UniProtKB/TrEMBL annotation:
<keyword id="KW-0472">Membrane</keyword>
<dbReference type="GO" id="GO:1905515">
    <property type="term" value="P:non-motile cilium assembly"/>
</dbReference>
<feature type="transmembrane region" description="Helical">
    <location>
        <begin position="13"/>
        <end position="35"/>
    </location>
</feature>
<dbReference type="GO" id="GO:0035869">
    <property type="term" value="C:ciliary transition zone"/>
</dbReference>
<feature type="transmembrane region" description="Helical">
    <location>
        <begin position="79"/>
        <end position="103"/>
    </location>
</feature>
<dbReference type="Pfam" id="PF09799">
    <property type="entry name" value="Transmemb_17"/>
</dbReference>
<feature type="transmembrane region" description="Helical">
    <location>
        <begin position="109"/>
        <end position="134"/>
    </location>
</feature>
<keyword id="KW-0966">Cell projection</keyword>
<dbReference type="InterPro" id="IPR019184">
    <property type="entry name" value="Uncharacterised_TM-17"/>
</dbReference>
<protein>
    <submittedName>
        <fullName>TMM80 protein</fullName>
    </submittedName>
</protein>
<keyword id="KW-1133">Transmembrane helix</keyword>
<dbReference type="GO" id="GO:0016020">
    <property type="term" value="C:membrane"/>
</dbReference>
<feature type="transmembrane region" description="Helical">
    <location>
        <begin position="47"/>
        <end position="67"/>
    </location>
</feature>
<keyword id="KW-0812">Transmembrane</keyword>
Length: 135
C-alpha cells in the first residue's frame, strides 16, 4: 500500500498559487492602507491595529502554506490538520479586512473575496487529502 502516492497534486498547485496570490494581496492591502491613511481621514487609533493585523495575517499565511505543503508532500495528517486550523484564523482576518476595517474599498472586497474562495477550496482539498492519508 505504501507504493501509492496519496499526496494531492491539486492541493499542492493551489498552495503554490495561494503563496503567489498572498504576496500580491499583502502588497496591495498594505498600499491601500497607506493610501487610505494619506487620502482619507484615517483615525490614528485604527491605523496601527489594521497594519498589525495585516502582518499577523502574513505570519499565519506563511505557517499555513508551509504546514499545508509539508503535510501534503509527506502524506502526514498532523501538519495538514494544523494548516486547516490556521486557515480558520486566516479566514477571520480576511473577513476583518472585507467587512470591519476602518475603510473598505471595492478593491478590498475583490481581493478578500478571491482569498476567501481559495481558503474554501483549499480547505475542501485538505480534508480530502487527510481522508486519503488516514485510510
Amino acid at each position: 500500500n505504501s507504493s501509492y502516492q496519496l499526496s494531492s497534486v491539486p492541493l499542492q498547485i493551489l498552495l503554490y498559487v495561494n503563496g503567489i496570490y498572498y504576496i500580491f494581496y499583502f502588497s496591495a492591502t498594505l498600499a491601500m492602507i497607506v493610501y487610505k491613511s494619506q487620502v482619507l481621514s484615517y483615525p490614528d487609533d485604527f491605523l496601527a491595529p489594521d497594519l498589525a493585523l495585516l502582518f499577523v495575517m502574513a505570519i499565519l499565511e506563511v505557517l499555513r502554506l508551509y504546514l499545508g505543503s509539508k503535510g501534503n508532500l509527506t502524506e502526514e495528517e498532523a501538519p495538514l490538520g494544523l494548516s486547516l486550523v490556521i486557515t480558520v484564523g486566516s479566514v477571520i482576518l480576511s473577513v476583518y479586512f472585507l467587512v470591519w476595517q476602518t475603510y473598505v474599498l471595492k478593491a478590498d472586497v475583490i481581493l478578500n473575496a478571491v482569498l476567501l474562495f481559495t481558503y474554501g477550496l483549499g480547505s475542501v482539498l485538505k480534508v480530502m487529502a487527510i481522508a486519503a492519508f488516514v485510510r
